[in-house]
Amino acid sequence: MPLVEYIRSPESGRYVKVGGGTYNRLLKDKTYASKAKRARRIRRPAPGTKTKHPHGRVTSARNVTLPKANPRSLKRTLKTIPESRQARRKHLESMMKHKGKGRGGRTRGWAAAAPQKGRERHELMEKCGDQCFLFPETEGFPICAALREGRGCKVDCRGVTSALVRAKQWNYPRAAKSAKALERKYKCKPRQAKTRAKKTIKSTK
In 65-201, which residue ranges form alpha helices assigned H by DSSP? Predict the structure, then answer.
């Protein structure tokens, strides 16, 4: 499986391909050149690779010891979303109007509460550490809400369920296995009522 080297850009905080256009531009920039050269390199599958992605270290469920968070209401989450994210705010407002309708009840509101790539994920990693991410090296698959939610370093079941769904969709088996174990550990999946089978009594004559 082809692997490509990446570094975290000292300019934007995002991962950029070593040897790519953005990387070469950083090397020519006096402000970021030395930082780009010293940046730790990670190896990731090349884009479009149709195989199982190892993706480096995955946070195991047994290593997560954070408390469980009770998710904020959609109304309170709306207050924490920056005004600049108009599309996200409109989507959440629409969700509030149609509460209880459609699918995705177990992850409802997570897209708005989840830490966005860049500054929000950097802040979460700095304060809470690896336990809030299934892929801590790239700050991927967050399972804790953004710090702006005011919940601190706590596991959000919506994030765990969302991570499980995405890991299966994007073919990350080890991340999916860890997310499934976290669902059991934090009892994120609601128990289904056991239905007793009705016994049919046949009368013999």
Answer: 74-80, 86-97, 110-113, 119-128, 157-169, 173-185
